[in-house]
Design goal:
- By secondary structure, this protein is an alpha/beta fold.
- It folds into 2 domains: 1-34, no CATH class; 36-198, Rossmann fold, CATH 3.40.50.
- It has 9 helices and 7 strands, in the order ααββαααβααβαββαβ.
- It has helices spanning 17-21, 29-34, 57-68, 77-80, 83-89, 102-108, 112-117, 141-144, 174-185, and strands spanning 40-44, 47-54, 93-97, 128-130, 151-153, 162-170, 190-198.
- A 5-stranded mixed β-sheet has the order 1-2-7-6-3.
- β6, α9 (174-185) and β7 form a beta-alpha-beta unit.
- The longest helix is centred in the N-terminal third of the chain and has 12 residues, at 57-68.
- It is globular and about 50 Å long.
């Protein structure tokens, strides 16, 4: 049975270099090459964070198709090439996904952050909720940094737990900072952050 790339829909040839590496190909050679991770290290306060990719036009379009156009088949594309490395690197962590407004999830039919990071096969703790809609790109600078008022966390004890907070796009950092504060208040032993891509300064999401 022929395999077709989940991104560009081209047939994946059996003689490609990538076909020798993986028996369950979901990407053609061209898209495989475009998904080259940079693993960009940065800090959110004192918390270590990593952006897997640079925020290129290719990554931006992929996230838009998945999140904005509801192309569910793209859920496995973002981590696929590096999944074994990530599973080893974050072994023993509990994954806390960035919250998405429930009405948006219902419209989409899935929570995009949860679906991307399910493939890590780590314990998922969706304990932070977004209590109102809030689109960062449409907010003033001041309003973005008041974002902590729209998040809530379940009354759970995170003592002795290592937490990996995950999100698709890192923009101003206001969401991550607010969620990190909530996780600290619940006693998280250690917190790290992993995002698909980090935008450049002054760049906005369009969806």
């Amino acid at each position: 049975m022929d395999n077709y790339c989940k991104v560009c829909f081209k047939r994946i040839t059996d003689y490609s270099l990538y076909s020798l590496i993986s028996k369950n190909n979901i990407l053609c050679e061209n898209c495989f090459a475009k998904l080259e991770a940079k693993f960009i290290n940065f800090k959110i306060g004192s918390v270590r964070a990593i952006s897997i990719y640079e925020y290129t036009d290719f990554i931006k379009e992929l996230i838009y198709k998945f999140k904005g156009c509801y192309d569910y088949e793209l859920k496995d594309v973002f981590l696929y090439r590096y999944i074994n490395y990530l599973r080893i690197n974050y072994h023993g962590y509990y994954v806390v996904p960035a919250p998405s407004y429930h009405i948006e999830d219902e419209k989409r039919g899935f929570n995009h952050v949860v679906e991307i990071f399910k493939s890590l096969k780590l314990k998922m703790l969706p304990i932070i909720t977004k209590i109102e809609a809030h689109k960062q790109s449409s907010q003033s600078f001041k309003k973005r940094y008041e974002v902590n008022k729209i998040f809530a966390i379940e009354n759970v004890d995170l003592k002795d737990k290592k937490i990996l907070f995950v999100d698709d796009i890192f923009t101003t950092g206001s969401t991550a900072m607010s969620c990190i504060d909530l996780l600290k208040k619940r006693g998280a032993k250690k917190i790290e952050v992993l995002v698909i891509a980090k935008t450049k300064k002054k760049e906005k999401q369009e969806y």
